[in-house]
Amino acid sequence: MRKRISTLLAFLGLTLWLGLNANAQNTQMVYSYHHPDEPITMWGTKKHENYDVAIHIKDASLVGSTITGIRVPLPDNVSGLKPKGAIFLTKTLSVKSNTNVADVEVDSFDVRAGIVEVDFQQPYTITDEGIFVGYSLSTSSDFDKTPIVVVAKSETDGFWIHTSRTYRKFTDKSATLKMVSAMEVLINTNLTDAATASLPDQFAAMGTTPTLNATITNKGCNGVQSVDYTLNFQGQSLSRHANLKTAIPGYFNSQATLPIELPEVEGPGQKTVTLTIDKVNGIDNQASDKEATSTLTAIAFIPTKRPLVEEYTGTWCGWCPRGFVGMENLNEEYGDDFCGVAYHNGDPMETISNTSFPNNVTGFPAAWIDRTHETDAYCGDTYDGRYHANVTYEQYRQEYGVADISVKATLADKTITATATTKFPASMEINDRYQLGFILTGNGFTGTGGDWPQTNYYPGKGNDYPDADMNTFTNGASSVSGLVYNFVILDRSGIYGISNSLPASVSESEENTYTYTFDLGKVNSVIAGQEKLTYDVIAILLDTQDGNRCVNAAKGHVTDITGITNISTDAKNAKAESFYSLDGKQLSAPAKGLNIVKMSDGSMKKMMIK
């Protein structure tokens, strides 16, 4: 068998060259879940055991193409590995007597530092049932505890793993470990210029010309610089040419986004969008599947989407400071549109026990978006020690929000009254599918002594967390005092929504209101002695048919109207100077309902306009 060795750095440059110069190789394709611009890292169980790593190749475009070899990425130090490894092809991943059993082919190779390229003795022609391709390593000691080269991302079929001690049956661990294998499979194919497309289902306001972001996926050896496509929508058939803003490299399944501008949306209801990729780089598209369809639903308006971010933390938790920073960053970036909630555990700000969390929290710190997506409140979904939470947050801001939602709240004599208003962009039957919930949060908590100082595991870790926003902790002590904690949950209407908080049916653009009250006396032990607290109420809209997923949220600042008196008609010396709504926003003139009025003598009063 032919073997070629290079360093990991040379490997990254080589794979990029191979992808962009596939024409020079005629019909050789590189198939990998790792792309050249993605950093690699190491993974292992940190035990002395055997590893079997595989990826699954199943794609209609590749049926009839031939697998000729594999590039196995290995660590620079292989002293802890046995000198022989194996590559394998198998239709079914099988383990017998705790040993990988491949049903197509197994070949051995010499373990070397860097990249080992190995040809299969019998090239394999891909069928429509797909094939698993992988390699096997054995540790000779505990010296190299992380021998598997991976990329930090999650893709189905990207990281099947079996080990002799830890993972005793093959499992696709990509989703749970958020990793894919960096191995590359070499394939001979007649596909040179080929691409497929996918389109998202989308909502659009009538009378607008929306843009659909199509995902173009490379299915050939060459990179993709341009496509010619046909768009069918509302009875129109439009032929267009598009140069991609960023060319797709010649890596199988590499992707780029192509904005598709639709004609003006006419009338309400669901409409089919069909996109056909006719040519790639000016050549007839060789992909087996050239067509993509999606559904566009035309409605009166697009609701403003605000994701709900729930963070789980505690002052005892030494890794939790990054969540503290991430939440503050999101609040600074999004302001009143940021609906953040911090669940404290085991410290003076705890009000909800961990047995009543709305999410399945297995460790601290933790964060969830819309109660469906677990992420990191600082790094987001890209855990590299930098602030990326806003990137993940933005993805959820782009989701359809189902209905516009707003909330106003006032405080009078320890009672907070919150009123949520919802407006749906289309008439529909609710029948308790969507329910409202309310969360009361406090801002400005601080304290000294006892359990107030924040435990900090970040001193000296400036290289791992290099952004300046982490300096308080990377340059700080093992315990940090004087922090001000915001977003602290004080009370809620319940874990889930309130049944019948919305009408059984709603009409397009009609406003629906629901009021809920909080008693601050219930949390007096937590807020006592805190002199500078402010309060927010977050109203959430939950979908009971989708695991109580939060589909939208809104935040309202609590206005304290305690002690504000009505304007007296016989007031002689003071005049109304400015007007405010109950959520603290200044008005150009009094509005219908209750108004807060600032008088010329500095006093605050209330005024009802009927």
Characterise the protein shown here.
With 610 residues, this protein is mainly β. The chain has 6 helices and 45 strands. The radius of gyration is 29 Å and the shape is globular.
Helix/strand/pairing category: mainly beta
Total E-strand runs: 45
The largest sheet has its strands arranged as 36-33-39-40-30-31-38
Beta-strand percent range: 35-45%
Separation of termini? 89 Å
* Major beta sheet summary: 7 strands, mixed
Percent helix: under 10%
Q: Mean pLDDT, nearest integer?
A: 90
Shape: globular
Helices, by number, come to 6
Low-confidence stretches: 1-25
- Determine Rg (CA atoms, Å): 29 Å
Topology at a glance:
Elements: E1 3-6, H1 8-20, E2 28-31, E3 40-43, E4 50-57, E5 66-74, E6 84-90, E7 95-96, E8 99-100, E9 105-110, E10 114-125, E11 131-138, E12 148-151, E13 160-163, E14 171-172, H2 174-177, E15 180-181, E16 184-188, E17 195-198, E18 202-205, E19 211-218, E20 224-233, E21 236-248, E22 255-261, E23 269-280, E24 283-284, E25 291-299, E26 308-313, H3 321-334, E27 339-344, E28 366-369, E29 373-375, H4 389-397, E30 404-412, E31 415-423, E32 428-429, E33 434-443, E34 454-455, H5 471-474, E35 479-480, E36 488-492, E37 505-506, E38 511-519, H6 524-527, E39 534-543, E40 549-560, E41 565-566, E42 576-580, E43 586-587, E44 593-599, E45 604-609
Parallel strand pairs: 18-25, 26-27, 30-40, 41-45
Antiparallel strand pairs: 1-10, 2-16, 3-12, 4-11, 4-13, 5-10, 5-16, 6-9, 6-11, 7-8, 12-15, 13-14, 17-19, 19-22, 20-21, 20-23, 23-24, 23-25, 26-28, 28-29, 30-31, 31-38, 32-37, 33-36, 33-39, 34-35, 39-40, 42-43, 42-44, 44-45
